Amino acid sequence: MAISRRQFISYSTLALSSLTLPLEGFARRPVSFERLMDFKPYGNVTLVFTSDLHGHLKPLYFAEPMNLLAPEALRGTPGYLTGADFLKFYKIKPGSVDAYLGSCVSFIKLAQLYGMTGGAPQLSTVIKTTVRERGRDRCLLLDGGDTWATSGIALKTEGMAIVEWLNYMDYDYIVAHWDVTVGKEKFLDIVKNRLKAKMISYNITEEPFGELVFPPYDVVERGGVKIGIIGSSFPYTPLANPRKFTEGWSFGVKPEELQNHVRELREKHKVDLVVLLSHDGLPLDIALIKMVKGIDIVISGHTHDITPVPVRVGETLIVSPGSHGKFVGVMDLDVRKGKLQGYRFKLIPVLSEVVPEDKKAKELVKRWYAPYEKEFNTVVGKARTLLYKRDTLYSTWDRLIGEALADQLHGVDAVFGLDVATSPGYRWGTTVLPGQDITVEHVYDVLGITYPEVFVMKRKGRDLLALWEDVADNVFNPNPLYQQGGDMSRIYGVEYELKVNAKQGERIRNVRIKGKPLELDKEYTVAVYGGPPPPGVEPLKKNIRDIVIEYIKKKKDIEVERKPNVKVLDHPYNTDCYWR
Amino acid sequence: MDRRRFLLASAVAVAGLAVLPAIKPAYATPALEKLEKELQQRLGVQLGQIKEVADIKLTAPTIAESGANVPITVESTIPIEKVEQLWVFVDKNPTPWITDVKFTPMNGQVYFSTRIKMGETSNVRAILKLKDGSYVMATKEVKVTAGGCG
Fold first, then answer.
1. What would the pLDDT profile of A107-143 be if each residue is shown by its tens digit?
2. pTM (2 d.p.)
3. Is the same domain home to A432 and A514?
């Protein structure tokens, strides 16, 4: 490890000269592993947690969004903070490690300076060190879901590579969302037979009578403290992903039932502390906790938010540890006399080049990767533009995918030329820096879904508009209870104006398809993927990954339009944060 | 099988409803016109004459997992002796009337659970007619969506 750290330091010294940011503090004191881990144990119980790993066992770049557009009532609140606003809100110094991991500001420069983030061997070291300093009997290890799906290695091993790592780490509890997309049978096999951690969920029930599928909560002792831990899986899994993965199960947000579980834990089980492990997303959890009393801590996954300090709602502390293995959350708690007396909280940044690798975890990753290394490492092209995925409305990855679909379908038959290609606003993916090789694994990391089929169909202008309005309401409804989570669908071939705060059905304006105003009764040719399959439409022979890989290979140098196809009328919309 | 489950099971069998294809834009329906007509016809009152009260509890998802199958439950702490009848309406369904249920003191309490079909995002209304001739109501908006992204 000493070698790679030295490499890192010399590397960073070189890169420093090209930075325009005030980085003197960093230059004088390069980041060390010890400094990243600098967090003195406190209290008698510790929650150690990760969320939304999205199947990543190896380090990667992952850029935080330039925009998280919010309806007026929620603007500027945690869950909708990006870039310079994020830094200001949490008083983070521009150019620091925390700034690099938590905001979009100067991402390209800082990525070159600090390198990749995450990786199972690095996460293992951080988790093991934290646990060793405190003692295993005082620590509760939690993961907030979106764990063993949506990456190349997750897909190839049906999640098992990540499951084995979770077992190696000795995680205690987990909840789910994308994890079900390995298939319902496989999912049940994992949580019942393969995974050491316990799957808990108060909001997954059998239809139609509502029997619980998993235990809603568990009672566990750590450091002499009796903890009640409740699980909440993603409430809209049946809508966000094809229904077949959750056939016969119902999900949902159920404040009253949650309150009953809290009461039961407090009164019947006499617990000292109540923790909610949730995949609801930060805005929804904030709204939910306004209705449910008696929960001490919420570990909130799904929206990939980073909360350098907890969000306080009444007596409850809500924390969200980001995504893609960028952080390990550590919350030291002082619980005495049946009550939370105090806490210390830190999101430990996982800089892959600084954190020493755990040997056994590295071997585990190597073993699972071995059969696929050759395919994954195949270079298909070179990025000339930053390829990023996350944003409320637009991304260069999605633009590239749209181009690939258009190219594919024009090539087949000019008459069947494509008008519109939609790409789902998933929050996960990977980031490729300008000048970096694009590999097959990168494509998997953006399109690693178990239902990669592409469907081409005819749709009337009015139906398209209604559908986009519907998605817009799921993203921009002022009440988080009516938001479904996720970002806006990316619509290639279309330009439009968006009024975030307009009523449902009136947000999307001046739609132009291929440069001409949308006609309500005209039929358009539309390509879609990554959602519930449209009934009665046969998929194309090639799936979305094949199409994108083929296109990148053909073009080789991948330069992508940075300018979004959406004009936002009533909200600032940043388009240069990464490049500053 | 306890009483609640029995009620629910029987209600599932009873409530047969109109079908409508998936998503329709919210602005395409003239607001409340159809509902008012139905209320006039079935209850003989206007929406404005029905008081929204806290002692009726209408439980329904904020976002339906499927418009074809939306679970709803109506409960009330109003003594059963004072209650005559329950109606359920969905404002924007092609036929807003869903069902009506007569209560007798033998029911013990106001509790009704069923599954309904909804063509689009709409208010769901549970209206009780009391023995004194007055009408009271609980309303909840249920969103019907084509789904979206993870």
1. 999 999 999 999 999 999 999 999 999 999 999 999 9
2. 0.91
3. yes
